[in-house]
Specification:
10-stranded antiparallel sheet, 23 strands, 21% strand, 19 helices, alpha+beta, 662 residues, single chain
């Protein structure tokens, strides 16, 4: 039985800074899965931006454009704690993020600070210990980066400061048509004789200079209902925390985190080979950092945004806006199934399962078929439901029966925010663009929901979450395929993810079908349901077109899609030639769709797989330092085909890809 020192094991991945950061984005992250912030310093102050996972300025029915002035989310308030003098500019400076305790500690000249966001309550708690011979007053400033009222056509963003004794409370709300979202941040310095300086966009609490410890508490709350007094929600949370000492709040917080770390760990024993030992230590640290990040960001009602998560620092600025891409969001969750951190996937699956009904509408409105269509990119509340007349126009464009330039002004106006509708009505080549005809995203979600069932055996999860996703996405494909004269079911005019557009027999789609149809059949068997559909699904898989091979004439005609005659091809030339966003799409039958595994034991297919993996184009680039974070699927495939011995070389060149997105 291993005797594990969890604190020592997890603390090996602590982030330790010996000077203040040059950029706010380099700050240290703290969060409780719902609210979060980076912690960074300047010479005399500590900085925060409180963000929440459930604050969105607009929803799927927004009348403006994607990436327009109102396409933002998360930000609730900026906080600055000015400690006076220049305590954080000397060589004695140290800022440490303790992963085991989920707490940041900062040491300066004669002053130290500790802070955490409680794992059990929406509060940021700080303790300032001023031991300077000449202590300075503490200034706590809560501010908003927008003017108090911003109107953009039908959209309104407004904020105001509420009058609360000894506290600051900043509330904001967003309204447009059926959308309402509000948040509030409340703050107080737990000491006597404070006073508040007030401005339009900033209020500051000033506490007198004193030697010793000062507690500061900052809370947040949010609501989707205009009937909720979100400011009072935040104040109530604040008051509860103010009534308890720092150490009591800290103990409750640490109890959660220590239980978390003790349920999931990797310990690598010392090796004789120093290179293996270095790689093992590095991977242990990376694993712990990722688990810390996910436990800090993925415990709310919505998953963290891949582009900044709960850690944006420049107000509403967030590259790529407020919508969710399956491709970039799912990567956060890949490691959690095997790490005994499956509960952290709850927000991810909850959001997409809640989209299911709207995705069934989207299948009919956009494609004219039954099933469930999950667009690659979508608002937090799902795809837009269109008026019937507009849906007919959009479907005609998507299916190639009408040019996008023939859209009515009314139809065009409904299609500027929903990312999928926007690219359909503003295509790049013909009727195609990067995500316009990507139809495999829902199958990826269904596959991952099955993984969770495979790890847990949870029958309720299978019935309520997995099977609806499998059934909806398999039915979508069953009605999308076309049976041709050869008796086989083929696909036409779909994208091979973002790489090849308008192809025939996209390997991505054929892999999605082969990966999910057997699971849908098995799930239906376990649940003893849909006997008639099981037979139809089996008939589909029995007569599905084979994966395109390089020796096929149509495969060779698709520029960039050919690897070798005896390797899989990306697809066959359809409506658009060439590559557009290079991805190793040839590998999708291996991961994520698991149509081939090391247990397949088909020598002919095994040879095709190994040849395809050998020739896939991203791995050589990764070995030479290419920096594309979304190429992680290629190293995963290499390990899945038995090439894990090359993983140290991959890590040595690839980890630099994951620098912060600014």
């Amino acid at each position: 039985m291993l005797n594990i020192d969890y604190r020592a094991l997890i603390s090996s991945a602590d982030l330790i800074y010996h000077s203040p950061v040059e950029k706010a984005v380099e700050g240290q992250p703290i969060g409780n899965g719902k609210m979060g912030t980076l912690v960074w310093t300047t010479q005399k102050a500590i900085h925060f931006q409180l963000n929440r996972c459930d604050v969105f300025a607009v929803n799927k029915n927004h009348a403006g454009r994607q990436a327009g002035p109102t396409d933002y989310c998360g930000g609730c308030a900026s906080l600055i704690i000015d400690l006076g003098g220049d305590p954080f500019c000397q060589e004695t400076f140290e800022q440490r993020l303790s992963l085991y305790d989920a707490e940041v500690s900062i040491a300066g000249v004669g002053i130290s600070v500790r802070c955490f966001i409680s794992a059990v309550s929406d509060v940021l708690v700080l303790e300032v210990n001023d031991q300077r011979s000449e202590p300075q007053p503490v200034h706590l400033t809560v501010s908003m980066w927008r003017p108090p009222l911003v109107k953009t056509k039908e959209h309104t963003a407004q904020h105001k400061f509420m009058d609360v004794a000894d506290s600051i409370c900043l509330a904001q709300e967003f309204t447009e048509k059926d959308h309402y979202c509000a948040s509030a941040v409340a703050a107080q310095i737990a000491t006597d004789e404070t006073h508040i300086s007030k401005g339009d966009n900033a209020h500051t609490i000033i506490a007198p200079a004193m030697v010793g410890k000062t507690k500061i508490v900052v809370s947040s709350a949010s609501s989707w209902s205009s009937q909720t007094k979100v400011g009072m929600m935040a104040v109530n949370v604040l008051q509860e925390a103010l009534n308890l000492p720092y150490e009591v709040l800290r103990q409750k917080h640490q109890d959660w985190w220590h239980r978390f770390w003790e349920r999931t760990f990797v310990y690598i024993e010392p090796q004789d080979n120093s290179i293996d030992q270095d790689v093992g230590h590095f991977m242990t640290c990376v694993r712990n950092l990722h688990l810390y990040n996910m436990a800090s960001t993925s415990r709310g009602i919505l998953p963290p945004k891949w582009n900044g998560s709960l850690f944006i620092t420049e107000g509403d600025k967030r590259q790529w806006g407020s919508q969710f891409w399956v491709w970039t969001t799912e990567m956060l969750y890949f490691p959690l199934f095997a790490a005994d951190a499956i509960d952290l996937t709850n927000p991810y699956f909850s959001m997409y399962n809640q989209h299911l009904s709207d995705c069934e509408h989207a299948a009919w409105q956009r494609w004219g078929i039954v099933g469930a269509y999950f667009p690659e990119t979508v608002s937090f509340d799902g795809p837009t439901i269109l008026p019937d007349d507009v849906a007919l126009e959009v479907q005609a464009v998507l299916r190639g029966k009408k040019a996008h330039t023939e859209l009515s002004e009314r139809a065009y106006s409904f299609c500027q925010f929903d990312s999928h509708l926007r690219v359909v009505t503003n295509p790049h080549i013909g009727r195609y663009s990067w995500i316009s005809h990507v139809v495999s995203s829902g199958s990826e979600l269904a596959m991952q929901a099955w993984w969770r069932f495979r790890y847990t055996g949870d029958a309720e999860w299978l019935r309520d979450r997995v099977y609806p996703l499998l059934k909806g996405t398999v039915e979508f494909y069953r009605h999308l395929v076309e049976q041709e004269i050869d008796g086989r079911y083929h696909l036409h005019g779909t994208n091979v993810h973002e790489d090849f557009w308008g192809a025939k027999n996209s390997i991505m789609d054929l892999a999605a079908i082969r990966g999910t149809v057997p699971l849908a059949i098995r799930a239906a068997e376990i649940l003893e349901t849909d006997t008639d559909l099981r037979a139809k699904w089996q008939e589909l898989i029995d007569n599905l077109a084979p994966y395109p091979m390089g020796c096929d004439r149509g495969s060779k005609a698709l520029t960039g899609g050919f690897l070798a005659d005896d390797a899989w091809a990306a697809g066959q030339l359809g409506d658009v030639d060439g590559q557009h966003n290079p991805e190793d799409v040839w590998l999708n039958p291996i991961f994520p769709f698991e149509d081939w595994t090391l247990e397949t034991e088909d020598p002919m297919v095994d040879q095709i797989v190994q040849k395809t993996v050998e020739l896939a184009r991203w791995m050589p680039r990764i070995f030479t330092g290419a920096k594309l974070g979304t190429a992680i699927r290629t190293p995963i495939v290499w390990s899945r085909v038995g090439r894990g011995d090359q993983f140290p070389s991959v890590l040595a060149s690839y980890y630099a890809s994951f620098a912060p997105l600014e």
